[in-house]
Amino acid sequence: MIVPSTIPVLPTMTPQIKMSDEEFRLLRAYIYEQTGIYFQDSKKYLLEGRLGKRLQLLNMKSFNEYLQFVRFGSRRSEEMKSFYDTITINETFFFRNEPQFDAFEKTMVPEIVNSKRGTGRAKIRIWSAASSSGEEAYTLGMIYLEKLKPRYPGLEIEIVGTDINSTVVATAKSGLYREYSIRNMPKAYLDKYFIAQDGRYQVCDEVRRLARFESTNLYDRTRMRQMSAFDVVFCCNVLIYFDTKSKIQVVGDLYNSLNSGGHLFIGYAESLHGISTAFKLISFPKTVAYKKE
Ligand SMILES: C[S@@+](CC[C@H](N)C(=O)[O-])C[C@H]1O[C@@H](n2cnc3c(N)ncnc32)[C@H](O)[C@@H]1O
C-alpha cells in the first residue's frame, strides 16, 4: 500500500452560527422597532447568514450576545450603522423605472412650473427617499440637465437622497459606480455625464452638484418631521420590506413632507391600497403616482 507522505490539510471553515427561533423573534422585533422592516419567518436564513458574518467579525458566540451588544453596548451607536448596513437590501440602478421619469419630466414638472409661476420660487424640490447608492437621484439630475433646463432655463432643482444604510449613502456621495449600476442607462447619458475610470464610472460634477445625500431612517418620526416642502417624493422599492402598520406610519409622514399638489412615486410592485386614502391616484402612461391635493 502506498502511504501519502503528507496528509492533506482540509481548509478550516468557521462553522455558521445557528440562530434559534427565539433569537430570530427577538431580533426581528428589535429590527422592526428601529426601522419598520419586518422579516417574515421565511427570511430567517437571510438574517442568520448576514448577521452571522457580523458575529464572526466581532468574535461573538451567539445572536443573543449580539442583540445585547447592539441594544445596550457602549459602542451601540457605531454598531447600529453596521447593523443597518447588514440587514438592508440595496438593489438599484440608473433609469430603473423609466415611465416614472417620463411622467415626472413630461407632466409633473410642467404643472409645477405653471403653479409656481409668479410665486418667485422657480425651484423644484425632490426627495429620493431610500435612495440606496444614489442612482435614482442622479438619474433625475441628468434628466433635469438634458431635458428640463433647456426648456425652462430659469428652473432650479434641488435633489435630496436619503437612506438608512450609511455605506450606500457614502457611495452616493462619491458618485462612483460599477458596470452593474449603469446597465440600463442610455449610452448618450453615459457618454455625456460620466467619466470612465479603471472599469468604474464617475458621475460628472455638474450632476453631482444637483444632489446631496444623508443617512435618514424613514421610521424615525422626529427626523421625518424635518423633511418638508417637497414637490415630488420617490419612495420606491422600500415599502415592500415594511408591514402594514409601519407602511401606514411612513406613508403618512411622506404625505406630510409634500407640498400641496405634490406627488409621491412608489415602486412598480407596491401599492397604497389599505395604507392611505389621503392621496389621489393619478395615472400616467405605464405608471401611477399619488397626488397630495
Ligand atoms: C431595494 S433599495 C431601493 C432603492 C431605490 N429606491 C430604487 O428603487 O432603486 C431599498 C433601500 O431602502 C433602504 N431602507 C430600508 N429601510 C429603510 C428605512 N427604515 N429608512 C430608510 N431607508 C431604508 C435600504 O437601505 C435600501 O437602500
Description:
With 293 residues, the protein is an alpha/beta fold. The chain has 2 domains: 21-87, Chemotaxis receptor methyltransferase CheR, N-terminal domain (Chemotaxis Receptor Methyltransferase Cher, domain 1), CATH 1.10.155.10; 98-291, Rossmann fold. The protein is built from 11 helices and 10 strands. It has helices spanning 21-35, 44-57, 63-72, 76-87, 98-116, 135-151, 166-174, 187-193, 205-208, 221-226, 244-257; strands at residues 123-129, 156-163, 176-177, 194-197, 200-203, 211-215, 230-235, 258-266, 280-284, 287-291. Strands 6-2-1-7-8-10-9 form a 7-stranded mixed sheet. The longest helix is centred in the middle third of the chain and has 19 residues, at 98-116. The N and C termini lie far apart (87 Å). Residues 1-5 have low confidence and may be disordered. The structure holds S-adenosylmethionine. S-adenosylmethionine is lined by residues 35-37, 88-92, 96, 130-132, 136, 163-165, 168, 217-219, 236-238, 241, 267.
